C-alpha cells in the first residue's frame, strides 16, 4: 500500500510539472526564449533576438516575428539573418510514430547577408574552440555515434517548406550584389522524392528551377527529372539515383551556359574564363563499389572529354582508368589509395600538355586572397600527414607547352623517404619557340569547338592551313635533371628544409631554403649557380655570351613581408668578382630598390675590345644613303617612374684595353621621374674623369642634362696595342649638353651646350682608313691631307676642336685645327641637327721649308650634304666669299667651357691648336685638380 502511495505521488508530481510547463508555455511562451537563445549561442556562438513568439499545442504550432541572428565577434555587418515571419507546424501523431515527414514550415521577409572581412573570412566566421571531451573522442565512440544517428535527420523530416520574399546580399570589396527569391517551395513526396520550385531574380535576370530529385536517404533507387534555368545557365538531370545518392543507378546530365559573370559575382569568384560551357555526360554505378563518369563538350571554347572508372574494396580505392582531353592537351592516369595501410600509388602520362589555357581558367582568382588572410596553409599538418604515408608516383609527359617554352620527354618520380619527400625529374629537351598559329587556332594550337565557330572562320578541316608553325629560338639539347627534397623534420631555426638542385652539361645550380609555418612563400634561402659554357644550348650566339664565362653566382636571400634582401651577393665573371647587397621593397608603389656594389678589379677586356678585326668593314654603311638619321618617333619616358632606386658602385681598378681607371665611384638615383648619375669619378695615371648626368620626365616629354670632363687621356690606350687608329696623344675633352623634347628629333633641335677637344702628339695609322672600308671617308681624308695615301703614318702634332650648340645648331667659327709634320689645316662651320645638314670647311696649308707646293693641295675642302648622305667637295664655287671667316680672327665669345682650366696651354704653346684658346684669360686656363 505504501508503494502504491509513493507511485501515485510521483505520477501526480510529473503530471503537475508537465501541467505547469504547458501552462507557462501557453501563457508566456517567451519564458523559454532565453533557454533557446542560450542553447543556440553555446552551439554556434551567434545571438538570436525575437520580437514575438506564439505557441499552440493542439495542433502543435509555433509562430514568431522579427527573428534576428547576429555575430557578436565582429564590428561590421553583424546581422547575419532576419526573418519577418516564421511559422512551424508539427504533426504530433506522425512524430511519435517516426514517420518520414512530421513537420512543415513557411517563412517570409527574409534577409540573408554574407560579407567578406579584411582577414579573408566572412561575417559568418567564428573561431571554433574544441572542448577537451571532443578532442579526446576515440574512433569507437565516433563510430558509435554515427551508427546511433544513422537514421534520417530531423532536418529532412519535413513535408513542405515555403519561402517567400528572400533577399540574399553578398558583399565583397565594398560591392554588394543581391539575389531576390520571390518563391521557393520544397515538397517531400511519400516516395522520398523532393519536388523543387524556384522563382527568383538577379539584376533583372529571371532565375527558375523545377523538377524532382531523390532524397539522400531514399531506401531504393528513384527516378530523377530535374531542370533549372539559373544565372544564364540551363541544367538538366534525368535518370535513376540509388540509395546512397549514386548506387545503383545511371543518370544523364547536361549543363549549358553562355556567360557565368552573374554567378561569379554572387560567389565572389571570376568565372568568366570558363565561359561558355556546354557539357553532357553520364554517371553510372552498376554495383555498390564501381563507378563510371563520361563527359563531353566544351569549356571556354576548348573541346573537353573525360572518361573515368573507379572501384573500391574495403579501405582500398582504385582509379582504374582516367582519360582527359582538354583542347590540345591529353592526360591519362591510374592509381590506388589505401587508407588502411596509408599508401598512395599513381601513374600519369600525357602526350601533350598545354598549360596556358589551363592556367588562364584560374589566373583571375589566384591573387584575390588578402595578404594577411589565413589561407589554411599548415605545413606542419601536411608534412606530418606525408610522413605517415607511403607515396609512389610516376609521371611521363611527352610534351609540355607554357607560353613560348616547350619541354619534351619529361619523367617525374615522387616518393616519400623516411625523413623527406623526394621528387626527381629528367627533361629530354627544353626550348623557347615563337609560335605562329592560324587565325582560328586557339593559344594552345588546338581548334575551337566547331559548334561555336563563326561561319566566317576558315575551315578547320584543312590542317595544312591551321597547323601551328613553331620557330625555335633556343633549345637545351642536353638532358636536364632536377631534384627536389622536402624534409619532414623542422630545423632548429624554424621551418622545414627544402633543397632544389638542377644540372645539365656545364650548367648547375642549387637552392636551399625552408618552408615556414603558416606561410607557403619562402622567407630565407641560398642560391648558387655555375655556368662553364653554353654547350648544352643551341640557338645562342656563343661569341656574345662566352665572354662572360665561366660565371658563378652566390646570393643569400631573405624576405620580411614585402621586402626582399640580397645580402651578401657575389657575382664572379672569369677573374672578376663583384660583391655587394641589394634590397627590393615591393610594399611601396613604385617599388624601391637600393644597394651597394664593389669590385677590387674589373677587366672589361674579358667582355669587350676594339680590335682591327672589329673595325674591318665597319664603315661600309657610311657610304649608303640612309635618309633621315634622327627619328621623330615618340620616346617612352614612363620607365623613369617604374621604380625608385639608390645604387652605389665603387671599383678599385677598371681596365679597358690599355687604359686603367682607378678609384671609380658612381651613384645612381631614380626618384619622382628623374634619373641622376652623380658623381661619375675616376682617376687616370696622369689625369682624371669627372662627370654627372640626369634624365627627367617633363610635361613636354623628357629632358637630358650632362657634363663630362676628361683630362690627360691617351686615346691609343682605349684600343688594343698596335691595332688602333692612333698611337699616343694626350687628350683633353669637355662636353656640357642639355636638351628637352619627346622625340629624338625634338631633343636634337633643342640641344644647347659646348664641346671642346684637344689632342697633343699622336701618330695616326693611315692604312686603318682602308681597313674601315668607307670610300667616302677615304676620299675626305685624301682631299684634306693628300699625304695620307702615300705615307704609312701621319705624325699629328696637335688637333683641337670647339663647337657651341644653340637650338640644335652646332657652330665652330674657325675653331677646328689639325697640325701635322707636313700640313696645317684650319676649319670651321655648322652642323644643323634640325635639318641634318652639314657645312664644314677646311683650308689646308703646307708647312714651311718642306718644299710642298700649294698646287698639290686643294684650296678649300667642304663637307656638305646631310647626315644620311654627306658629300666632300674640293674648291666649291663661291666658297671664298661664303667662307670668308675662315682664317679670320677668332670670336671672343662662347668659350666658357675652355675657361674652366680643362686644357693645358703649356702643352699647346706655339701650335695652331693653342691659338684657338688664346682668347681665354690666363687666370681661367690653369689646369684643374
Structure description:
With about 950 residues, the protein is mainly β. Among the domains are: about 110 residues, no CATH class; about 150 residues, no CATH class. It contains 17 helices and 44 strands. It has a 44-stranded mixed sheet that branches. The longest helix has 26 residues. The C terminus is likely disordered.
List the helices and strands and how they pair.
Blueprint: H1 2-27, H2 33-44, E1 47-56, E2 61-70, E3 79-90, H3 92-96, E4 103-115, H4 132-135, H5 139-148, E5 158-172, E6 175-188, E7 193-202, E8 205-214, E9 222-230, E10 233-241, E11 249-257, H6 261-267, E12 277-287, E13 290-299, E14 302-313, E15 316-326, E16 329-338, E17 343-354, H7 355-362, H8 379-388, E18 390-402, E19 405-416, E20 420-434, H9 463-466, E21 471-476, E22 480-487, E23 496-504, E24 507-515, E25 524-531, E26 537-538, H10 542-545, E27 551-560, E28 563-573, E29 576-585, E30 591-599, E31 602-603, H11 612-615, E32 643-656, E33 659-671, E34 674-683, E35 688-698, E36 701-713, E37 726-741, H12 744-749, E38 752-765, H13 767-772, H14 775-784, E39 793-806, E40 809-820, E41 823-832, E42 837-846, E43 861-865, E44 870-874, H15 879-882, H16 905-908, H17 912-915
Parallel strand pairs: 4-5, 17-18, 30-32, 31-32
Antiparallel strand pairs: 1-2, 2-3, 3-4, 5-6, 6-7, 7-8, 8-9, 9-10, 10-11, 11-12, 12-13, 13-14, 14-15, 15-16, 16-17, 18-19, 19-20, 20-21, 20-22, 21-26, 22-23, 23-24, 24-25, 25-27, 27-28, 28-29, 29-30, 32-33, 33-34, 34-35, 35-36, 36-37, 37-38, 38-39, 39-40, 40-41, 41-42, 42-43, 43-44
